């Protein structure tokens, strides 16, 4: 599941395929072969391959001019673009991390190293909600996919979220029959619906505050970030080391720790912390923001 389009209607799995020669592809899915129905048509082929070198964990959302990624890639070749074009959303590649999620990495320049081999430099890591994949790390040999500009979304219902489905892909017009088609079992995990990690956390006395990080539409400096959920809700958990001390839910990005003296009569220890996660009414809780209390 890729994670970088806007709105709930555009949060289903990306439909991408690759073949040589390319003649387009139809995508079918169902609980079994007997219940397959067409979920989309792929017009433009994706470029697919693997990483040639490991990639260390780096700071997300930051332009690392000296960082590079060497890949083997079959299909359309990556190209270099200006910094302005990249910051506007161009030049991204998806790399599968150790946790099975896909990190979306943008790059400034692409240079050929050999046949179907490229070095991508000027990296921006963990884009479009893929920070958890960045933190998981990725080794040489990890799969990479460069999606075409016309990549579409599979026709799926929200009640299919988390359910394994048989996916069958074949040439355009193949009708869903098994002959000369590729079958794979896969589950739509709904990562595009996962709330982002809250940001700019602060502890001031008994008050803990933060800012929500929207899944889409949050680039404006002039307006509040959009909610992107049916309503605003956060889970706040207080820990003393590994021991969970208190859990509350709040409907605004601020919490007053009124029970502080009850939970920590001798004051905060070195391992006291608070963890904050935003809740989606469809996905559940997103990744946590951790703040030290001591």
Describe the structure.
The model is unreliable at 1-9 (pLDDT under 50). The protein is mainly beta. It has helices at residues 83-87, 131-136, 260-263, and strands at residues 14-15, 25-30, 37-42, 47-51, 63-74, 92-96, 102-114, 117-127, 143-146, 152-153, 164-171, 182-187, 199-204, 207-211, 234-240, 243-250, 254-256, 272-280, 284-285, 289-292.
Instruction: Give the H and E element order.
Output: EEEEEHEEEHEEEEEEEEEHEEE
Query: Given the structure, what is the number of helices?
Result: 3
| Strand order in the largest sheet | 4-5-8-7-6-9
Q: Would you report the number of β strands?
A: 20
Task: Give the biggest sheet.
Answer: 6 strands, antiparallel, barrel
Strand percentage, roughly? 35-45%
- Distance between the first and last residues' Cα: 39 Å
Mean pLDDT, rounded to whole units?
93
* Low-pLDDT segments: 1-9
Structural class: mainly beta
**Residue share in helices?**
under 10%
Rg to the nearest angstrom?
22 Å
What topology does this entry show?
Elements: E1 14-15, E2 25-30, E3 37-42, E4 47-51, E5 63-74, H1 83-87, E6 92-96, E7 102-114, E8 117-127, H2 131-136, E9 143-146, E10 152-153, E11 164-171, E12 182-187, E13 199-204, E14 207-211, E15 234-240, E16 243-250, E17 254-256, H3 260-263, E18 272-280, E19 284-285, E20 289-292
Antiparallel strand pairs: 1-10, 2-3, 2-11, 4-5, 4-9, 5-8, 6-7, 6-9, 7-8, 11-12, 13-14, 14-17, 15-16, 15-18, 18-19, 18-20
């Amino acid at each position: 599941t890729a994670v970088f389009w806007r709105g709930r209607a555009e949060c289903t799995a990306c439909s991408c395929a690759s073949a040589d020669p390319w003649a387009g592809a139809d995508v079918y899915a169902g609980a079994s072969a007997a219940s397959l129905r067409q979920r989309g048509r792929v017009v433009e082929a994706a470029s697919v391959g693997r990483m040639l070198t490991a990639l260390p964990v780096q700071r997300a959302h930051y332009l690392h001019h000296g960082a590079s990624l060497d890949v083997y890639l079959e299909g359309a070749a990556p190209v270099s673009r200006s910094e302005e074009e990249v910051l506007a959303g161009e030049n991204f590649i998806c790399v599968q991390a150790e946790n099975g999620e896909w990190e979306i990495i943008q790059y400034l320049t692409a240079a050929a190293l050999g046949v179907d081999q490229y070095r991508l430099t000027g990296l921006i890591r963990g884009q479009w909600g893929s920070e958890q994949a960045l933190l998981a790390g990725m080794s040489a040999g990890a799969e990479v996919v460069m999606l075409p500009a016309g990549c579409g979304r599979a026709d799926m219902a929200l009640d299919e979220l988390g359910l394994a489905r048989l996916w069958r892909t074949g040439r355009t017009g193949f009708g869903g029959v098994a002959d000369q088609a590729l079958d794979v079992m896969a589950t739509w995990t709904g990562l595009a619906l996962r709330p982002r990690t809250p940001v700019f956390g602060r502890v001031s006395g008994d008050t803990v505050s933060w800012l929500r990080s929207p899944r889409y539409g949050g680039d404006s400096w002039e307006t509040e970030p959009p909610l992107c959920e049916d309503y605003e809700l956060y889970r706040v958990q207080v820990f003393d080391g590994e021991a969970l001390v208190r859990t509350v839910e709040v409907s605004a990005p601020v919490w007053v720790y009124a029970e502080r003296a009850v939970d920590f009569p001798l004051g905060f220890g070195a391992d006291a912390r608070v963890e904050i996660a935003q809740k989606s009414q469809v996905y559940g809780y997103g990744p946590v923001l951790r703040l030290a209390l001591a």
